[in-house]
Recover the amino acids of this structure.
């Protein structure tokens, strides 16, 4: 089953380049459509587009992006 997740990204001198799937509580943020993932990103992290202080050092935050997630139920 292929769904959509949200990938958090940052690049700073302190931590280097980091990427990880975002979680809501104990479960990863998973959406059935790319549009739903993009809407979540815009609603919850849209401020990063204009907040340049968080994009620079020491934070280095980048806009999260929707990524395909392959779900395997065992």
């Amino acid at each position: 089953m292929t769904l959509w997740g949200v990938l958090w990204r940052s690049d700073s001198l302190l931590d280097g380049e980091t990427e990880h799937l975002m979680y809501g509580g104990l479960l990863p943020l998973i959406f059935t459509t790319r549009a739903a993932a993009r809407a979540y990103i815009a609603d919850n992290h849209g401020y990063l587009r204009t907040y340049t202080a968080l994009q620079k050092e020491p934070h280095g935050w980048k806009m999260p992006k929707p990524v395909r997630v392959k779900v395997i139920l065992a």
Q: What stands out?
A: The mean pLDDT is 95.
